[in-house]
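FORM 7B - TANDEM STRUCTURE REPORT

SECTION 1: FIRST PROTEIN
SEQUENCE AND TOKENS:
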Amino acid sequence: MASNFGGFIEPVLTVHFPKTSSDENSMRNVINPQLMLGEVDIGAIRLDPKSRDDIPQLLRGLQHIYTQPELRERVFSILREVIPQRTAGEGKADAGTGRPGMDQWRILVLGVIRLGLNADYDRIHDLVNQHGTLRQMLGHGDWSDKTDYKLQTLKDNLRLFTPEILDRINQEVVKAGHVLVKKSPAEGLEVRCDSFVVETHVHYPTDINLLWDAIRKTIEISADLCEAHGLSDWRQSAYNLRQFKKFYRHAQKLKHSTSKDEVKRQDKEAAMKQAHSAYLEQAKVYLERATDTRRKLQHIVLAEVFLSELDEFMRHAKRQIDQIERRVLQGQSIPHEEKVFSLFQPHTEWISKGKAGVPVELGLRVSVVEDQHRFILNHQVMEGITDDAVAVPIIEETKQRFDGIHSVSMDKGFHSKDNQVKLKEIVNVVVIPKKGRLSAVDLEIESGSEFVRLRQRHSAVESAINALEQHGLDVYPDHGIVGFKRYVALAVVARNVQRLGAVLRQQEADRIRGPYKKAA
């Protein structure tokens, strides 16, 4: 088989690995190594080298992983730790799981494609059933294999990865990339580190809309439990929600007066307090009713799981009632550490990074370490910590994973006296501008040619951050901190796989242009 590129015929690599009984047994849970009628060997899949679309680059990177025996075995040994949701009969729903599962290789391919394209499950569902080249990469034939993937199957299996497994796969992808781009194994790495915010999919939080969320879920869960166990406590739950929402909307619409007339301002403040008091009183009524319902259900075994969820939202409601009373009725200021910014994504933080036009971001910081070859070596989801707290640990961890780190550059936010000292014990060159007025010694250091050169190149890490945001890390669409970490880790893998594909594409183009270069 051959592909035409710019008038030249380029042979397409076809790799057939010898299969021993032990090899088949070790690979059985990752991908079926036996080609079926109509299937194309993954190494022989034709990818357009001219295409600048994301899909061919992602598939090219995945193809390289599969066709390099040693790399393939290292990645597969990690994938074996992922336990797919399987069925007793192929293509049929099992009584235990209800849905068919997938080979681990297919889970990896679809996970990389999802984050590489920043696609939702609906788009992935369409691609996996309709995109011919993608189906070949998954091990399906063009015409003989009519395997159809269900949407819920994709959701269930793509959530099987753990952040730790994805992190180990990422290390193998980066090492494979270094083999391609480094001039020699001894070539040093110049790394740059920065952080950005991955936003969670939440509405703008206020104490009154958080109370609305808490009471709404309290009523809904209580009503569902009563209906399931034959209680009539919440027959009018829909009416209760409509009534409570009226109190919420009334309190929401009242704003502080800007009038210069003191009497008008006082009247407006009194109206606000009255509306909030009525809102709080109604919330307390529903909380008391929910407490009574919970008491009736506490001895029912089947209700235990749902009671814990009910307890959580009741706890949120009590906290929000307390904070609204203190803020509006008593005129107190609520300390930042007491605030919660989402009931459904409790890990969400209120982050002010001082970016132009973006006063506040709701999410979590993520720090990334990139090298001069544009591979992301490491990352960390920063829960409740700032840049200066992560500077040393993330570089120490990166140094353990990758030998030959020569220098590190960071922004001022990572600076502290301790960080400067400890980082110099880890790497040879540390480029972190100091805050405030510089001493003569510091000014001389920051004016040095090596410091200036690395500092000028530091901005390239913004391209990596932008690429990650293009690969799904603009807004995290799912729920939970574990899912958040998995989503970030998968985006990093997707970014590096695409970078691997881009390097291979460029090398292929350089080989084809070779005769022209020599003639010139």
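SECTION 2: SECOND PROTEIN
SEQUENCE AND TOKENS:
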Amino acid sequence: MSPLARWIATVVASLITAFLFAALSYHYGLPLIQTEQASADRVVLAGVVATVVGAVVALPLAWWAGREKPPSSRPASGAVAQHSATVQGVETSHIQLRDIGSGAKVNLFSPVAGPATAGAKPDTVSVHGDIRFAGPGVVAGKIKGGIHFHESTATLPARSSVRSLPRDLADFTGRDPEIAQLVDALKAGSRNGAVAVAIHAIDGMAGIGKTTLAVHFAHQMAADYHDLFFLDLRAHTKDQLPMDPGEALEILLTTIGIRGKRIPALLEARAARWRTELADRKALLILDNAASAEQVRPLLPGSSGCFVLITSRARLMGLDGLSSLTLGTLNPDDAVELFTRIVGPQHIADDLDLVSVVVRRCGFLPLAIRLAAAWLRHHRAKSVTDLLDRFTDTLGPVLAAFHLSYCDLDEAEQLMFRRLGLHPGLTFTGRTAAVLADVTRDRALTLLNELYERHLIKEPAGGRYQFHDLIRDYARTLAHREDSEFEREAAVRRLLGHYLAAVDEQMRAQDFAWFDDELPNLLPCARNAIERADEGYAWQLPRALAVVLQMRGLYRQARTLHLGALDAAHAHGDHLGEAGAHMELAIVDRETGDHQAACTHARRALDLYADSGDLKGRAGALAELGVLDRETGDHTAARTHLTQALDLYTDLHNAIGQANAFIALGVLDRETGDYEAARVHIREALELYAACNSRLGQANAHYDLGILDRLAQAYLAARDQLTTALRLYTEIHNQAGCANAHVELGDLASKRRELAEARQHWRASLDLYVVIESPRAEDVRQRLRENRYLPSRQGMDS
């Protein structure tokens, strides 16, 4: 912009700014006073208006001078068009803001048609001051100096690619027609300029080689794709539910770096975010072991640059644009070649004619052929004739191959195979295998390696093993046929005891990340203990998991487990077990809004603890009743119950119990208007939590102190306390705590008229509340709907 245009723009902008600021103040009811934020807003608004006016003034001046083109006439290049900036709802294109003053907040974004790709040359932002990058935009904090947009000669750094495929098999054999069909489909889409994502399904019976073909094809096409995704949807994994589409989307989004609160809660929103992230990616996605079209549909990309391969035992109906490939058995020549490649041609040079008999006995199924070939490869002194002699005609081809491999194991390996079949969970490690087989961990790892080499187990992640679905069923069948009920029960009880001790150990160490891998095993184990009414674990293991389930908002799973635990404890006449289950159900019901049921459980727990003489349990029940009284408005009863609980905990020298009671009393003081007493109680709790190194307790105390500071209008102190609480909740994977902290931070930002920040926190809390099915979600929706600055957005707030 020329100096003359800049001077004219400044003069006109000053007049327009005064008018606009007055109009905005009148509209929103803001007092026209000289606050720091109001002054900053006025200065920023002046800069924006100056830019708009300057751009208009520059047009005739540039034409007259013949030496400057207005920014708006500059063509966009590459993937990024002209930049824009938004300040308090006023938008202008291609701005230059100078001297906008200290303390102003500016949001800059690039409204491009799609995300920038590697190699594009967007305009860059040069800002002196506090600046951070967020998604496709830049958020500037305190600004010193100017903001300048200018064409950059640098390119964006290449985005890291995803490579989550399992390893390809070096001895992959055959399937040339099927691979050619998939390749032709890819080429046809390219030739026709397809605008829709290419979706292909590979269906067929178990053991036919669907996953192996999909993975092999993906490796063959790897050079043509930036990203390669693989996800097992668990349709036919015994004792495991098929993966929910929401869970699958969470895993996929996490794989590309979208984590935690950035993942929407609603299924539709997650699917939309997934499609958006893949819009500019050239990706190949394998959805393995799918159950139905309904399970798969939300996971499909929307970009023509993506190729989706789905494997399923069933033919998937109802997916638009789906091309299906039904996989049959190997043809005889390919079956012989596969067998030969695994065993080695030299070993069977004299028995080539008999190899065709072997593969026929295997039903030409790749899984059975691999097991039979693995047996011969491990027995160099044996011949194909010996292999045939060991086959049985009474079993089907797959079971015959399983039987052959199993009979070839030594006694210790066979025992390990059968014991692993008893594991209620999905995966196992060297430690859990050792517990099941009652051997040392080193011995267990040796045995696991033997099973792995013989293709009886697979290793999806380092140190974590898994059965093929069919082999798991076979191992479990053998365990029930060859081992006594006493032996089976002893093995499972050792495993449950190991998990109970491990949960206690991890809770004491506050290593909550351990549960990420083990919770899918712990929940089936707890259900197993309840189904068998195991006196040692049916109510002990669910209660050990209670805090983790609460922190993660898994209230439905928790209620199911605790109801089962209650029935089991009652059947065994264990009154303390019943009381513990009633306590956990009271907490779950309170958290999910059913206060009447919660009170019933808490009172029953109090009676059982009193009858049993358990003072610690009685104190816990009194504290829970006090919290319930407070939440239902009976403050007098609440104080009585909480004071009784505190006295009992003090007599027992139970620091955590005392801290919990202090926190509850502090909240009660706050609700009754005694902020000074509330602060004293909560700070006493914080000191006790810190002395016990309880991060959960410290997070709760900081959270409640933040609310007190907000009520006292000490907004900066409140933000510090709540931010600390949110950090601690995040570290320990406490979804409910994170949601509550986001609500308070949103309310705090709203008080400070930082409305965009408020909406961001409220949306984060809504996402979490929906995931954990909290009744507080509706309160947050109401906040978003009622906020007249930020109207509700369809699909998120309704």
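SECTION 3: OBSERVATIONS ON SECOND PROTEIN
The longest strand covers residues 137-151.
Residues 24-44, 61-157, 789-798 have pLDDT under 50 and may be disordered.

SECTION 4: SIGNATURE
Preparer initials: ____
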